[in-house]
Design brief:
The structure holds 2 protein chains of 2 kinds.
Chain A lengths: L2 H22 L1 H8 L6 H27 L6 H95 L1
Chain B lengths: L13 H32 L4 H25 L5 H114 L3 E3 L4 E3 L2
Classes of the chains: A mainly alpha, B mainly alpha.
């Protein structure tokens, strides 16, 4: 394989990989970055607390029925009041805990993303550094070639001029 | 010299172009995607969360204590003074819970900010390394260009010298030729003037 062909294949391959990244991973990357202020844990905590309190209340009712307990109206009202207070306190505590957990999760995700971002930037700088070095080498070589060509031209002019001056 | 130099020019290869483009795209991506994350993190981690953590800690203490105190009252256990003591213990426990929560909040904040600072410093190191690469590259280019210019200047001076030398040599050559010619003429003239008159009687040359 000619070296120019190998170069072209490598260039195309790396471009394909970059495009694959943009297609396959960039949306995930953007989604995760967009999720650092999520409130999902808090939102779910409130819903879960309500649901689980409902389940607990239903369980209590089933237990009362199963054991044939006689609950009169006043007791029932008291029971309901206690349950209602418990549910409110439980929901508040669940949401409060969820807020802390959510913050911890969001900061953890952001911290991990910052590490990823550092890698992205670092590799970009490496790449740009290499590109800059190659460009500088290219410019230097071009300048040297150009100067050498001019030097050769001057040498020719000098030789011809010398001959001409000899006969003047 | 009006004519353009015919020096071969090194062109940017496809790989170099790909490297430069993708590197720039990644850099742009970092700037647009990750920098806001860094800013957001710093703002968020600096917030005081002691109230939030204290609230939870106090709630935990209160729930446990309220149950036992409620049981004590409901079941008629203990005296009023014991209840008072329990209430004091509850106050102490709540206070310690808040103090502990404040410490935890401070530790979380410190840990987060130190983590951010470490990442920031790593990035600054990357930046310095990048600047070093860029500086070396531009230095290499500048040095090579200066050397190239020196080569060109030398060639120009040499050419001028060659032309001048050609002129001098030509002048000397012509001067030499004319001196030789003058000498030859002089010799010829002298020979001519020194030629003896022909004496017809003797048949021999006779000098004046």
């Amino acid at each position: 394989m000619a070296s120019s062909a190998a170069d072209a294949i490598l260039a195309q391959t790396t471009r394909d990989d970059w495009n694959y990244f943009l297609e396959q991973y960039a949306p995930l990357e953007e989604k995760m970055v967009g999720d650092i202020n999520s409130t999902e844990i808090i939102d779910k905590a409130a819903d879960t607390a309500q649901m689980q309190n409902g389940v607990a209340a239903a369980s209590l009712d089933r237990t009362i029925d199963r054991y044939g307990m006689n609950v009169n109206g006043a007791q029932r009202a008291q029971l309901d009041r206690q349950q209602s207070l418990g549910q409110a306190a439980g929901t508040a505590q669940a949401v409060n805990t969820a807020r802390i957990d959510q913050r911890e999760r969001n900061l953890g995700l952001a911290s991990s993303l910052m590490q990823v971002g550092r890698g992205v930037n670092s590799s970009a700088l490496d790449g740009m550094g290499t590109a800059a070095s190659l460009e500088a080498n290219r410019n230097a070589t071009n300048a040297q070639n150009k100067a050498q060509a001019k030097a050769n031209q001057w040498q020719t002019i000098g030789t011809l001029g010398s001959i001409a001056a000899f006969f003047l | 010299m009006g004519k353009k130099s015919s020096a071969p020019k090194v062109q940017e290869s496809a790989n170099e172009k790909a490297l430069a483009e993708v590197s720039k795209a990644r850099r742009d991506r970092y700037r647009s995607l990750y920098r806001p994350v860094e800013q957001n993190f710093q703002e968020e981690v600096a917030k005081d969360t002691s109230a939030l953590l204290g609230g939870r800690a106090v709630a935990d203490v209160a729930q446990a204590a309220d149950d036992s105190m409620g049981d004590a009252v409901a079941l008629g256990r203990g005296s009023a003074s014991q209840l008072g003591s329990t209430a004091k213990s509850l106050g102490d426990a709540r206070t310690m819970a808040v103090v502990g929560a404040n410490k935890t909040a401070q530790e979380i904040k410190d840990k987060g900010q130190l983590g951010a600072l470490k990442i920031g410093n790593d990035m600054a190191t990357d930046a310095v390394n990048g600047m070093a690469v860029a500086a070396r590259a531009s230095n290499t280019e500048a040095v090579a260009k200066a050397r190239a210019q020196a080569v060109e200047n030398d060639a120009f001076s040499t050419a001028l010298g060659q032309i001048a030398m050609g002129g001098v040599q030509g002048y000397q050559h012509r001067k030499g030729l004319s001196e030789i010619k003058a000498n030859q003429d002089a010799m010829r003239q002298r020979l001519k003037s020194d030629q003896p008159d022909w004496d017809a009687s003797s048949g021999m040359g006779r000098y004046a």
